[in-house]
Specification:
- By secondary structure, the chain is α/β, with parallel strands linked by helices.
- The chain has 8 helices and 9 strands.
- The N and C termini lie far apart (about 35 Å).
- The chain has one domain: Alpha-Beta Complex (Spore Coat Polysaccharide Biosynthesis Protein SpsA, Chain A), CATH 3.90.550.
- It is about 40% helix and about 20% strand.
């Protein structure tokens, strides 16, 4: 299989159908042999049923996994990636904040064996921000990056560890996520640090990005737990 696209979702019944259809259309239009895997992280609004009702061509595989209870975004993505079969594995947030076509060049590089991991970045010069975050959220994002650098040793060359649009060599994705122990949204930092530790080739790329204003994150309320999690991730990587 050429590509697997994993979409984690929590109470996204109003969006998930469009997410699935956009991912499936991307696979079909580019003549990939591919699949879309939705992981419903214990939603209470019928997200899984909405995902199953998406209009998807028979040539594109669709699997919807329903977790019985909310287990965290990291656990949801890990669950989905364990089910993938693609030579390239993509993880994309619900809301289709970035057009899937933005990933074509990176898919080619990974399939050619020239790249292991590609990460969308909202901070690169050529990135186009169509709908931006509030000034407060941008500042909190900056603070998180500084804390990640200071506590975990994240290299400064990594401009955006948390953007929810990433591509991996399939075998590498399944290896890294099998090792991942972070269940919450900071799983991306653990995965990245593990990949750097193993020497995998990582590249950030510019995108067209629109902020999904319907976010589940409440970073200001979670400041202490974020710091605690950063120290926990540091200890995991240094073992």
């Amino acid at each position: 299989m050429d590509i697997s696209i994993v979409i984690p979702a929590l109470n996204e019944a109003k969006k998930i159908r469009f997410d699935v259809e956009a991912a499936a259309s991307f696979i079909d239009e580019n003549k990939f042999n591919g699949e879309v895997i939705v992981v419903d992280d214990g939603s209470s609004d019928g997200t899984a049923d909405a995902a199953r009702k998406a209009s998807v061509l028979s040539s594109v595989g669709l699997e919807v996994i329903s977790l019985e209870q909310n287990s965290g975004k990291g656990f949801a993505v890990k669950t989905g990636i364990a089910k993938t079969q693609g030579d390239v594995v993509m993880f994309a947030d619900s809301g289709t904040c970035i057009p899937y076509a933005n990933a074509l060049e990176q898919i080619k590089k990974i399939r050619a064996g020239d790249l292991d991991i590609a990460m969308a970045s909202r901070r690169l010069k050529d990135t186009r921000i169509l709908i931006d975050r509030s000034r407060k959220r941008r500042f909190l994002s900056w603070l998180f990056r500084q804390a990640s650098i200071a506590i975990t040793g994240l290299p400064r060359r990594i401009t955006d560890s948390q953007c929810g649009f990433k591509l991996y060599n399939g075998e590498i994705a399944r290896e890294l996520f099998e090792e991942c122990q972070t269940r919450g949204y900071m799983f991306e930092l653990e995965i990245l640090l593990r990949a750097l530790q193993k020497g995998y080739r990582i590249e950030e790329f510019p995108v067209e990005w629109s902020c999904d204003l319907d976010t589940r994150l409440r970073p200001r309320k979670e400041a202490f737990s974020v710091l605690k999690e950063l120290f926990r991730i540091r200890s995991l990587i240094k073992k």
